[in-house]
Design brief:
By secondary structure, the protein is an alpha+beta fold. It has three helices and five strands; from the N terminus they run H-H-E-E-E-E-E-H. The chain has a five-stranded antiparallel sheet with strand order 1-2-3-4-5. The protein is globular. It starts with a helix and ends with a helix.
Length: 115
């Protein structure tokens, strides 16, 4: 089993479901993506460059889907979280029901244009 798969399967069910859903959407949108285990979390690379990561925050109960070039994104600013970070902006999900596929797809497709 790959480290990324093992990591996801070790997560509580709430995070597993969200992570698997987000990864399915990412893989559908980015055919040339590669899922790697970097910095202790699942990280999607696109065209051999960091694209987005999935970081569950157990203490606060959310999944952070961070986009490496998040500050270059123009759309969906009302949904993206920066938290005083320099380059990354992220989408935050507290449950699978909160995931808006239209917004997630839009952020992925806009970010894809930056590569």
């Amino acid at each position: 089993m790959k480290p990324t798969e093992a990591y996801i399967l070790r997560q509580p069910e709430q995070f597993q479901v969200m992570m698997l859903h987000v990864l399915a959407v990412v893989e559908e949108e980015l055919s040339q993506s590669e899922l790697l285990f970097k910095w202790g979390i699942p990280y999607v690379y696109y065209k051999k460059k960091p694209f987005c990561y999935l970081a569950p925050n157990h203490k606060k109960g959310f999944l952070d889907v961070g986009f490496a070039k998040g500050f270059e994104l123009k759309r969906n600013q009302e949904t993206l979280v920066d938290e005083k970070r320099n380059t990354v902006k992220s989408l935050r999900y507290f449950s699978i029901e909160e995931i808006d596929n239209a917004v997630l797809n839009d952020v992925i497709s806009e970010a894809k244009l930056l590569y």
